[in-house]
């Protein structure tokens, strides 16, 4: 398209589209951008040049004429059409979802931290409780064994069985 002149039928937006655009806000306009070769919806400010709001393109980023989809996009983005009460409700719902997400992340983080083995959990518990080192290997005092081991019992049985023969 850039090698030859662009026909005016392509560079002029539909009159009905422009009328609907002006119904939303009289300062909105639709112009053809010759650099990007696409239509652009602009907003005329009180001073300075108009500001581009939306560059109109198809799903693949190519050229298309403006239509009702763009009007719907502008209506959905217009915060002044929504009452203040509804905006506050949306904000409150968003903040509640955000807080719940943070609570869930904190729960999952605590659960993930406690997935360690029982030795690590005992060590963390003793540190948090302020009970010193807990189950340290240095200067460990092993409790005395109670009773006899299976080897000692087996030996005792064998000793008692030999004299009887």
How does this model look, in words?
With 165 residues, the chain is mainly alpha-helical. The chain has 2 domains: 8-81, no CATH class; 84-129. 47% of the residues lie in helices and 10% in strands. It has a 3-stranded antiparallel β-sheet, covered by helices on one side. A hairpin with a 4-residue loop joins strand 1 and strand 2 (38-43). Helix 2 (15-24) packs parallel to helix 3 (68-77). The longest helix is centred in the middle third of the chain and has 30 residues, at 84-113. It is rod-shaped and about 115 Å long.
Short description:
By secondary structure, the protein is mostly helical. The chain has helices at 8-11, 15-24, 68-77, 84-113, 118-129, 150-161; strands spanning 28-33, 38-43, 51-55.
Query: What gap, in angstroms, lies between the N and C termini?
Result: 113 Å
Content of β-strand: 5-15%
**What can be said about the biggest beta sheet?**
3 strands, antiparallel
- Gyration radius, in Å: 39 Å
Helix count from the secondary structure assignment: 6
Low-confidence stretches: none
Percentage of residues assigned to helices: 40-55%
Which geometry do the CA atoms define?
A: rod-shaped
Query: Which strand order does the major sheet show?
Result: 1-2-3
Features:
6 helices; rod-shaped; mainly alpha; 47% helix; 165 residues; 3-stranded antiparallel sheet
